[in-house]
Amino acid sequence: MASTPRNGIADLSLEDDDSIKKMSEVAKFARQNNIPGYRPNGHHPVPKPQKQRSENSIRETPMSALRRRLSGWFGLSTSKPPRRANSLPGKISRDDSEHALSELKQSLSQSPRWQRRRKSVPKPPPKPRMPPPPPRTAPCSDWRELQSARGIAQALRAGRRQLVVFLDYDGTLTPIVSDPDAATLSDHMRDAVGKLSDRATVAIVSGRAREKLRNFVQLPELYYAGSHGFDIDGPGGLHAASSFLCRRAPSTKRPILFRRWRRGRRGDGVAASRRWRAFTSSARHRYAGAAESRRRRASTATPPPRPRESPHRYAVAARARRDRPPAGLRHSVSSEMVPVLRAARDLLIERLQVIEGSSVEDNRFSVSVHWRNVAPTDRPAVEAIVDSTLREAPFAGVLRKNSGKCVYELRPDVKWDKGEAVLYLLELLRRRETDFDEYGDDDGVPEERIAGFTEDEWYGGVLPVYVGDDVTDEDAFKAIAPFGAVSVLVCPSGDKVERPRATHATHTLKDVDDVRAFVDELASACAARPSVRGR
Ligand SMILES: O=P(O)(O)OC[C@H]1O[C@H](O[C@H]2O[C@H](CO)[C@@H](O)[C@H](O)[C@H]2O)[C@H](O)[C@@H](O)[C@@H]1O
């Protein structure tokens, strides 16, 4: 009988009567002296029952368990790998795992169940590298919450989306002045915008008449959306797109544009294009008509050379497209309203003569009644005259009044504003870039895949940027929000009266100088972006 002292108690084996007797003595002693760790016989903690393993699983190594599970999932037949002499049971050796892996790969490629599964499970969309800032869909109650836009341009350097920049004129490119005709563009700003337009698509969107805007800005290569977007013109294509036309989409062998930028926020593109479909069906019909007449013209005119046999035919076609002079764009909404607007203008000039400091500006598709220079006591009279005029025939129900910065703007009472104009321009750019009909390249290819990417992919590859200062710019901020756009409200901190009460803008800038710095940053961001062609 072994007797090793432990906690003052000997370990006993119950072999004979002496032992039993001795044990009960020891137990008594332990109880009396409160010795921990001792329990009399029969009161020792019952050891947990060991899990009974099946004979199979006792012998099963992790490797064979894996093989058994795989065969269960995919219906594979797996063979046992050769066991090396030094491989230990219960551990996966390097040879084991390599063998299992190659076996698995081979079997997977043959398994019909797995193939079916692969087809049915769609690939997850690739993660965007630099997600654009989240759009604000609800109006922001406090403009001071917004962050500075300067950093945005720097962030754009890393982005891969094609910029389309929309700039408001008064209060954005030029400071607000008391005489509307004196709001000329500074040379510095002209240089900055000109430099940006060399590298990105730029449009000026303003309440001013389109011709007046052109005269002020004097940059012929830009798009101009005058009279709050009712009157649009421009070169008719996306800037420098032709330089990206040398690659082909693997699926359709079409030339592709924003291949590298497709990874942008595709969801935004989807949402935006759905929105577009929903509300501009009439504009789309007009487009369909324009496309049809272009097609007809192309069929009657001498067809352009078709580089069918060339190995680089798409590149050649692209060059031909680039070398042709741009077709140009001219689009007006509600032209039939121009005579009515002229009548309103004449009447208002006559009626407002009595109010000193007031003035009426003809913006062709809109009429601006300025009251910046009117004495505060006379200002209600200006609004009363405008309102009473609008209640008369033939203006009632035909024209509507909007308020801007010390100005009332009368325009056709139709659903068209800066927001619609911006969406119109974006859709125009998309169509111009994806229309390869003239070269006959779209034979047998679904319309949405003509240029190697879908409408949604195109929208996902474009990043709209809009900079504006007025209430009317809010329509544009709101319209481009689903694209994950950058929208910037120019909002001087001291300007408490004239700033919008709420905004859909994602960022703010404080004045025209900041806008120039931002435009400069955008231009250098475009220049710094790696070329798509080089990849
Ligand atoms: O859309 P915008 O380019 O911002 O044009 C809106 C109006 O801008 C002009 O008026 C404003 O700027 C004037 C010059 O700084 C200022 O005197 C006036 O008080 C502002 O309202 C323009 O004259 C209007 O026709 C536009 O509708």
UniProtKB/TrEMBL annotation:
Residues 104-113 have a biased composition (Polar residues). InterPro entries: HAD-like_sf (IPR036412), HAD_sf (IPR023214), OTSB-like (IPR044651), Trehalose_PPase (IPR003337). GO terms for biological process: trehalose biosynthetic process. It catalyses: alpha,alpha-trehalose 6-phosphate + H2O = alpha,alpha-trehalose + phosphate. It comes from the Eukaryota. The keyword Disulfide bond does not apply. Its cofactor is a divalent metal cation. Its EC number is 3.1.3.12. Residues 92-102 have a biased composition (Basic and acidic residues). Residues 122-137 have a biased composition (Pro residues). Pathway: Glycan biosynthesis; trehalose biosynthesis. Keywords: Hydrolase. GO terms for molecular function: trehalose-phosphatase activity. Residues 30-141, 287-331 are annotated as: Disordered. Pfam families: Trehalose_PPase. Removes the phosphate from trehalose 6-phosphate to produce free trehalose. Belongs to the trehalose phosphatase family. This is Trehalose 6-phosphate phosphatase. It comes from Pelagomonas calceolata.
